[in-house]
Structures are given as structure tokens and as C-alpha cells.
Design goal:
Helix content: 40-55%
CATH class of the largest domain: Alpha Beta
Strand order of the largest sheet: 2-1-3-6-7-8
CATH architecture of the largest domain: 3-Layer(aba) Sandwich
Oligomer: single chain
CATH topology of the largest domain: Rossmann fold
Structural class: alpha/beta
Distance between the termini: 27 Å
Radius of gyration: 18 Å
Order of helices and strands: EHEHEEEHEHEHEHHHHH
Largest sheet: 6 strands, parallel
Number of domains: 2
Length: about 210
């Protein structure tokens, strides 16, 4: 999808990272992935915010620490000035508490810096249509973490499938992460929706967030 510029009505991308080598490499990756992409690179949150107050961007890709400082306040300010901006965290901080904190702040995707260009492409595509996304390495940790909600009659495998779907993974991605066939994933998904009396992927995501499953 991202290889077709017509699928990118707004292709302005802002990068915010205080490591030059990573930031510049990420910018080159996006330019190759998105023909016609206009990528702006910033190292200081206050300068990035000033730019966002003046010009519109489609995406913001940011680390969660800049010069040793967190970006929670920066993201809260962005939500006021640019509520339609799609925010993707790209960071080396893989603490699951951080993932949940930033997803609760309203970011659209959370990727570890160990992720690859394919997952970045998928993340950008998912968030562009209103979905959330968490990179597969973090999703694997999430599904192996403690169960926070048990009163749902779901099996362990069904809970794992539910968490991966809520994290933005499709049938193939869920299949590869769990090491099961796509047909088994689809069967689990049908059973989940039947047990929970849900009717769409959006309702599954809402259920997972409401019950703190991711």
C-alpha cells in the first residue's frame, strides 16, 4: 500500500530523535518506502512542537526519551495542537509498562527500534485507517505477561490471539508469532467473537483495551 503515493493523501512525516545516525537512517527508509514523502527531522521536542503549530503533518515518529527527558508532556501538547496527527513511537524502551502508558496517552503505534522496515510499513498503513499497532517483539511479551482479566471463558490460546489482534496484527502475523496455522488463528477468532458476543475486529480491540489485556 505504501509503495503507491496515491494512497498517501498527506505524506508529510516528522521524525523526532536525538540520535543523528538512527534519525537519518529512519528518514532514508521512509523516503524509499513512501515515494514523494516529505520527511523533516528534529532533535528537540520544543522545536518540533513549534513546527507542528505552523505546518500540518500526517505522521510523527518519535522516541520516548530525548536528551534524557520524557516526551509525555510533548505528546499531550501535540494532541491539543494537531489532534489528527498520527503518532508512532519508535524507541529502544521495551518496558511493557511504557507501552501501555503511551497507548493510554493516545499514540497510534508503539515499535521497538529492533523492528524492521516491513513492520514499520505495516504500522503506518494500520494507523492510517484508524487501527492501533504494536511491533511483534513487544506483542510476544504482552501475550506472555500476566493475565489481567480471566472472567471471559477464553482459553489461553484464544487470549493470545485476542491480544495480537488488538495489537494490530493480521491473521498471517498472528500465525507467525504464535507458530500456528492461519486456519487455526481464524478458528480461534471465530470462537472468541462467539464467546464474547462481538461482531468486528474493532469491537475486539475495544474489549481488549477496556479489560487491560494489552
Amino acid at each position: 500500500m505504501l509503495n503507491d503515493a496515491s494512497d498517501f493523501p498527506a505524506n508529510r512525516v516528522m521524525l523526532l530523535d536525538d540520535h543523528d545516525l538512527f534519525g537519518e537512517s529512519l528518514g532514508l527508509m521512509i523516503e524509499k518506502m513512501v515515494p514523494g514523502a516529505q520527511v523533516s527531522y528534529y532533535k528537540i521536542a520544543s522545536e518540533a512542537l513549534q513546527e507542528l503549530e505552523v505546518n500540518k503533518y500526517r505522521y510523527l515518529l518519535t522516541d520516548i526519551t530525548l536528551g534524557g527527558m520524557g516526551v509525555e508532556g510533548f505528546i499531550s501538547d501535540i494532541k491539543k495542537h494537531a489532534p489528527d496527527l498520527l503518532i508512532i513511537i519508535v524507541t529502544s524502551v521495551v518496558d511493557l509498562r511504557a507501552v501501555k502508558k503511551f497507548m493510554d496517552l493516545g499514540v497510534d503505534a508503539y515499535l521497538s527500534k529492533a523492528t524492521n522496515s516491513y513492520e514499520l510499513k505495516v504500522a503506518m498503513e494500520k494507523v492510517a485507517v484508524g487501527k492501533k499497532f504494536i511491533s511483534s517483539d513487544l506483542s510476544a511479551e504482552l501475550i506472555s505477561g500476566p493475565q489481567l482479566y480471566q472472567n471471559n471463558n477464553l482459553t489461553q490460546k484464544e487470549l493470545e490471539v485476542l491480544k495480537l489482534i488488538a495489537a494490530g496484527h493480521n491473521v498471517r502475523g498472528t500465525s507467525e508469532t504464535m507458530g500456528i496455522s492461519p486456519y487455526t488463528v481464524m478458528a480461534h477468532r471465530r470462537n472468541i467473537m462467539k464467546k464474547l458476543k462481538l461482531h468486528s475486529a474493532a469491537e475486539l480491540v475495544g474489549y481488549a483495551y477496556k479489560n487491560k489485556l494489552i
